[in-house]
Specification:
The protein is of the alpha+beta class. The protein is built from 33 helices and 29 strands. The strands form eight sheets. An eight-stranded mixed β-sheet has the order 5-4-8-2-1-11-14-13, with no helix packed on it. Strands 16-17-18-20-19 form a five-stranded mixed β-sheet, covered by helices on one side. The chain binds zinc ion. It is a single-pass type II membrane protein.
Length: about 1050
């Protein structure tokens, strides 16, 4: 699956352009201001205007963005000492105001004397100890009979839950038992698109692996109306199905044991509603060119939703074959994983389409079917018919996808030395789709944005579409053919598909210049993995939220990064490739664990010095985080030391982790070519390498292909800075970007001062390449936004001046016409995005002119694709053009452009519009709900919107988790974008997340949010006083 990051191509600090587009009086968010100043615009419900963010009052009216005042702190520490819950008190007075009001606290808490404190503490300790003793003593202790001795040899009996019918449910675990294995499913589905319901029949043939009296499988929200069972040659008989809804399991219990080796068939008839969210068998609709609403139904099963469409053993290791039949109205068509075998008229006027039985065993999450009125274009690639489907009016946007998919299919067939095993491969653009795309075997589903490309689309838009196609096609091998056994190893699917996506594009479409994007996503993966709330690549997964949460940058981007590092480390060009071919062939049709991959790669090792891949890679997949390598040099002797790069590092979180690091380095003697690379394996805490005395500087981690950060020490950084100042081309652009990323990370860690960061950035007046430039702008923007949201106005102004001094001349040099080179487009959109967000007159004027031309041309003039975002964002800041843009948004058919318009609309600094757009995103009429995470993240970037958004999330939390599953990528995005710019104690103290309890407080993204706020606070505390001096 491609989770579709709302900020695709993370290398572009596009966020910057939504940021403080116009520096306005902070009163802009005070709705008490004359509302007549805001002209009306379409679809604005007057009821919705009466919304004021509780939180906005705090910062906007300057009631205090500082930490608790001293009295408050005193109260808290005293209260803690006395064992009184400070949280209760603070939440009590919180309820009468908004979450982080800086009102004067009640003065009821006077400070106790030291003696009182000691007496109180002693008293409390005694009382607490006695209470605990009494509590933990068994109830029988004080009875006459006393306690009976328990028989210690009796194993614990599992505690079985109650089924919905009140009987005991015979299974008490999250994972299914493995005594019964499904072999084949025969599915018949009769969807009714008028009433949004469906009726189904599932016939499952199973084999008994171990003697058992129960069959347990998954089912969610299905109303099972009849169940029959047949064991071996016995008669078919009716059986009762027990259901335990909290675990989405059903069971059939027998009085006699079924014996290993027997076969049995369970037939279940059921009815259900089509899902209104984005998973299971869900309904979707679109308006066609005649203005009619067309409905359709599609599926999204990964990770846990196949059970919402048919009862099944819904775990990836239960692979089986599927034979699927679906009925439809004659004017609709159906699609499924396999080609259609036949179509039969039914007595009720409907048609029933039957698909060939799958020729491969597959996991339930890969099953898919669609009922719609799409149109295809097709092409043969060796034995496979490749087709791209879309709604009829977008057929003209499908050519690029067909060509790209065909080329990539040919490439993968060759590369893996295993042909794609099915006779057809459909790529379908679905109007309502939450993820970026989903790799269902033979029927890959996409968002319209990630599949459809207009004839005039820019190379950057093509890059997005090509990389999503490349990712999903790679899954047809990694994931579909060979599947992880359980979700703990999701990275085997996603890390690989992500790596192959970049690798294949570089080979097949070098013009798309995908390298910069890959570098940028590796930087972001490092940033996330530096948090204590991160997790190991392979990590335990024991509940549905944890399954959802595996779809994160650790599984995807860190997974891809460590594969890249491994590929660079293995000797010879083809060892990596040979290893993965060996892995795919050995485990074809089966399920694997991480160790299986490392073993395959070790087996093909050809070098004299035996490369033990398992030994090296285990250190990267079994522990969270990554190493910081510190360089210290005395003459020719260079000592490298490793430690865990952990941003929240105190004694409690200190780890003694060691990594097996394939360190690469170059020196001023030879630094640009691949041949210059020297290697050093750092397995222990520290190691020493020798250099000629004459070497002036060395740069570790050539092109940032390794997953670690390097600290060069004061002298090492100074030498690199001097070298770059006299000639930027002494290092590759990837290496320059890597230095910039690393020094910002080290500043966040507290190892270098911000002065050193600025010192390195001095070389950038000569920088012209996209990667270092976008990385620097992105990093500076993070700080700029934090300062802005703390209303450090004078520092915001200085930061703005600093950015313009550094990059202004390059910003002015950018052109506004069509541009072919991808990297020039990336550079240009980053620079102009920043320039306009910083209110540069020239930029704003150019953008306004382009928008005007575009608006007046009636579709004949075009804004270059890479500049559309800048232009729409500038336009959205004016009352009049915001309305025009909203109208365009509602009429434009090309989805990529439409999304940029939406980001523009959401970047408005007008509070009424912010409220309107958030609500519209939740309603899903004018703005599709699938776009809500994008809307929220865009709104959060702006000064006017981020508190509105935070209130909106808190108030609508239950509706949000109804639309987007807990832990899902969408929820992760929402939490992250809403909280990543908080930096005060007040924000930490709110307690919203802890109040969620089972509705989300345990999510890793919540821990990540809290940790990030703490780190922001720490960085601000440390650097605010000195930023004044340095900027
Ligand atoms: Zn994927």
């Amino acid at each position: 699956m491609d989770p579709f990051d709302s900020n695709v191509a993370a290398n572009l600090p596009r966020n910057m352009i939504e940021n403080s587009m116009f520096e306005e009086d902070p009163d802009v968010v005070d709705l008490a201001k004359d509302s007549a100043a805001f002209p009306t615009f379409p679809a604005l419900d007057p009821d919705e205007v009466m919304y004021e963010p509780r939180s906005s009052r705090l910062l906007v009216r300057g009631l205090g963005e500082n930490d608790m005042d001293e009295d408050d702190e005193d109260c808290e520490s005293s209260a803690r000492l006395l064992g009184i819950s400070f949280m209760n008190r603070s939440s009590a007075h919180r309820s009468s105001s908004f979450p982080y009001t800086r009102q004067a606290p009640p003065r009821s808490c006077s400070r106790p004397s030291a003696r009182t404190t000691v007496v109180c503490v002693l008293f409390l300790v005694i009382v607490a100890s006695m209470t605990m003793v009494l509590y933990f003593l068994p109830g029988c202790t004080f009875t006459k009979a006393g306690c009976r001795k328990t028989n210690k040899t009796t194993p614990f009996e599992p505690v079985y839950p109650l089924s919905t019918n009140g009987k005991l449910f015979p299974w008490a675990q999250f994972r299914l038992p493995r005594s019964i294995i499904p072999l084949s499913y025969d599915l018949t589905l009769n969807p009714d698109l008028d009433n949004m319901t469906f009726i189904g029949r599932t016939v499952i043939t199973m084999s008994v692996h171990h003697n058992t009296k129960i069959i347990v499988l998954h089912s969610a929200h299905l109303n099972i109306t009849k169940a029959t069972f047949k064991l071996g040659d016995q008669e078919t008989r009716d059986v009762t199905v027990l259901e335990y809804q909290p675990r989405q399991q059903i069971a059939v219990q027998f009085s006699e044991e079924m014996k290993a080796g027997q076969y049995c068939v369970l037939t279940l008839d059921y009815s259900a509603s089509l899902s209104h969210t984005y998973d299971g068998f869900y309904n979707s609709s679109y308006i066609n060119k005649d203005g009619e609403k067309r409905v359709l139904a599609a599926t999204q099963f990964e990770p846990l939703s196949a059970r919402k469409a048919f009862p099944c053993f819904d775990e990836p290791a239960f692979k089986a074959t599927f034979l699927i039949k679906i009925s439809r109205k004659p004017n609709y068509m159906t699609l499924s994983n396999m080609p259609q075998a036949k179509s039969t008229p039914l007595s009720n006027g409907l048609m029933q389409d039957e698909f060939e039985k799958t020729s491969v065993n597959m996991s339930t999450y890969l099953v898919a079917f669609i009922v719609a009125d799409f149109t295809p274009i097709s092409k043969n690639v060796s034995e496979t018919l490749v087709s791209v489907y879309s709604v009829p009016e977008k057929k003209e946007h499908t050519d690029y996808a067909l060509d790209t998919a065909s080329e990539l299919l040919g490439f993968y067939n060759n590369f893996f030395e295993i042909n794609y095993p099915l006779k057809k491969l459909d790529l379908v653009a679905i109007p309502d789709f939450l993820a970026g795309a989903m790799e269902n075997w033979g029927l890959i589903t996409f968002r319209e944005t990630t599949l459809l490309v207009g004839s005039q689309s820019s190379p950057l838009e093509k890059q997005l579409v090509a990389s999503v196609i490349a990712h999903e096609l790679a899954h047809q091998w990694f994931g579909n053919l060979v599947t992880m056994s359980w979700w703990n190893d999701l990275w085997l699917n996603e890390g690989f598909a992500t790596y192959m996506q970049y690798m294949s594009l570089q080979e097949v479409f070098p013009k798309l210049d995908i390298g910069n994007s890959f570098l940028a996503v590796r930087f972001r993966a490092l940033d996330k993995d530096a948090l204590n709330s991160s997790h190991a690549v392979s990590t335990e997964v024991n509940n549905p939220e944890q399954v959802e949460e595996m779809f994160d940058s650790v599984s995807y981007e860190k997974g891809a990064s460590i594969l890249m590092m491994l590929n660079a480390w293995l000797p010879g060009e083809h060892q990596f490739k040979k290893g993965i071919i060996q892995y795919l062939k050995q485990f074809s049709g089966l399920n694997t664990e991480t160790e299986n991959l490392w073993n395959s790669l070790t087996q093909v090792s050809v070098s004299a010095q035996h490369h033990n891949v398992s030994e090296m890679m285990r250190s990267w997949t079994s522990q969270k985080g990554f190493p910081l390598v510190t360089v210290s040099r005395k003459g020719g002797q260079v000592t490298l030391t490793q430690e865990h790069f952990l941003l929240t590092s105190d004694k409690a979180t200190y780890t003694s982790s060691l990594w097996n690091i394939p360190v690469t380095y170059v020196t001023d003697n030879c630094s640009l070519d691949h041949d210059c690379i020297q290697m050093f394996n750092l397995k222990t805490k520290s190691g020493t390498l020798e250099l000629p005395e004459s070497v002036k500087w060395l740069k570790l981690n050539y092109k940032n292909t390794g997953f670690y950060i390097v600290h060069y020490g004061d002298e090492g950084w100074a030498a690199l800075k001097d070298a770059l100042s006299s000639n930027v081309h002494v290092l590759t652009q990837e290496d320059r970007a890597s230095l910039i990323h690393n020094i910002f990370a080290l500043s966040r860690l507290g190892r270098v001062s911000f002065y050193q960061v600025l010192n390195l950035l001095k070389y950038m007046s000569n920088e012209t390449e996209s990667s270092p430039m976008t990385e620097a702008l992105l990093q500076l923007n993070v700080i700029y936004r934090l300062l802005e949201k703390r209303q450090e106005d004078s520092l915001v102004a200085r930061m703005k001046k600093y950015i313009l001094d550094q990059f202004g001349s390059l910003m002015d040099k950018q052109t506004w016409g069509e541009e072919e080179s991808v990297s020039k487009q990336e550079l240009r959109s980053a620079l102009l995005g920043s320039a306009c967000s910083l209110n540069q007159d020239n930029c704003i004027q150019q953008a306004k002119d382009l928008f005007k031309q575009y608006d007046q041309s009636n579709g004949t003039s075009r804004i270059p694709g890479d500049l559309q975002q800048v232009v729409f964002t500038v336009a959205a800041q004016s009352n009049e053009d915001w309305g025009t843009l909203l109208h365009m948004y509602q009429t434009v058919t090309y989805d990529a452009e439409k999304r940029k318009m939406l980001r523009g609309l959401a970047s408005t600094q007008d509070p009424r519009r912010i409220v309107w757009i958030l609500k519209a995103g939740l309603r899903g009429d004018i703005i599709q709900t699938q776009e809500l995470p994008l809307v929220i993240s865009t709104v959060c970037n702006g000064f006017a919107g981020y508190l509105f958004a935070w209130d909106f999330i808190q108030e609508n939390w239950d509706r949000l988790i109804e639309k987007f599953p807990l832990g899902s990528y969408a929820i992760q995005t929402i939490i992250k974008s809403a909280t990543s710019q908080f930096s005060t104690q007040a924000h930490l103290d709110q307690g919203f997340f802890s109040s969620l309890k089972e509705r989300g407080s345990q999510m890793r993204s919540v821990q990540e949010a809290l940790e990030t706020i703490r780190l922001n606070q720490r960085w601000m505390d440390k650097n605010l006083p000195t930023l004044q001096k340095w900027l």
